[in-house]
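Protein: Transmembrane protein
Species: Stenotrophomonas maltophilia
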Amino acid sequence: MSVDLKAAFDEVKDEISSSVKGRLGSPFVGVFIFAWIIWNHRFLFALFSEKKLEMRFGYIDEVLYPDVWSFLGLNFAGPLASAAVYIFAVPWITEFVIGWNLKMKRRVLAKEMESDGRNPLPELDSQQMRHDINDRNKRINEQREGIAKLGHKLSRSDAVVAVLSNSSRAGPQLKNFLCAGVMRLDLKPPMGGSRYEFEKEGHVKVIWEGSPVMKGAAKWRLDGMNLVVMNLDGAEIVTLEFDPSVAEFVERTGAGRRLDIS
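Structure follows.
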């Protein structure tokens, strides 16, 4: 056999094998085979019994398949009908049974609540209540954000007034302003801002870092009106001075870095 002919036979064999696997992998084929076994279980028992071959074939021909209609009914019509019922009807029946079971559970739960003196809400009322609760939570969050913004403005104003009145005693107000919210570090020219949270204990929490200007920031301290940002070892990274004219911490080196509440 030539190499080309052998390759052609191998290709045909692979295609047939792939086609058979695809057919056997179909859910309908598996259900049909199972239904055929149920409908023809007597044929299988007779075929593999220990009786003589003539008696087995005689039983199959005379009892199981005495005519063509019996043969077609047991081998095709019956299994096909059973497979169709299993594939199409059983899921609907299962869905109905599950729905009915859940309905009965809800009724039992409602009876238990009534016996305990609790009145279950109708579905429409419970949906409206959930909607009202979500709206209330949304309004509460909006009010909290508004209060936080007002707190930021108040701490900024306090810091400005304290610095203009007596800069040497403005430390507490500057600290409150610095710790009032997430601080935004802006650069000039824009290079990507960063977000930091200055904790009252003197730690710096990095929220998001878009530039390496304060990379490694871990600690902070106030030195008069100056904010000194340090790394974990205490080495200074950058120093910014509070400018009451713009109510921001500004770097005086000309780099144009500004630190303000975002």
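Remarks: The chain is about 60% helix and 15% strand.
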